[in-house]
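Reply to dn_fold:

You asked what the input looked like. This is it:
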Amino acid sequence: MRKYIIMVFVLVATALSAQTRQQWRDSLEVLNAKIGRDPNNLDLHLLKAEANINLEQWDYALAEYGKILHVDEKNLAALYFRAFVHIQQHHLDLARVDYETFLRLQPQHFEARLGLAHVLQKMGRKSDTTDELNRLVQMFPDSADAYAARAAFETEQKLYDIALYDWDEAIRRKPLNEGFVVSKADILITLNRMDEAHRELNAAIKRGIPRYALKEWLDKCQKK
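and this is what came back:
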């Protein structure tokens, strides 16, 4: 069963770069030389931390962000990406602190709010996760991704009726998003509402989603 989980949306900026690992190592060597000549340049430290992340050198990245935040405790980039590094190291409490600090400074930041919701979810704080996702939808009522994030969490909690509502809202805002459609169809199939699932899939095909992309779910509707 394919599910549209919260992590689809979280920390998009940290996706792997097109650079190869060797290119990142070369960049790191250049940056280390520049920092040696200009050790107080925070932009250089941010770039070095980015290289460390792409090389999965988590401790070095943490050290760089620590240096930056020691000088500039309100550096948003350092707070945001240090939270990401903390998640990689399973330091969920520390990630939460960094996201919350970031959001006190910039409360309207979508990805940071989504990141905080993801951390709360991983910590097993269901009520806090729900509150944060509700806040996300309230703050970004036109965002399909906000509704989808909440729907994904509700689906995981088997709150299927309210999840179906949120998938509908996400689909209404992004009608050609295949992931949203199959996530709603998954719930309908799980509930043995095959006719509804089939109608949902056919409607998506009429809107322009390729039939082959939905074939797995169309087949499931036929089998049960």
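The radius of gyration is 21 Å.
Hope that clears it up.
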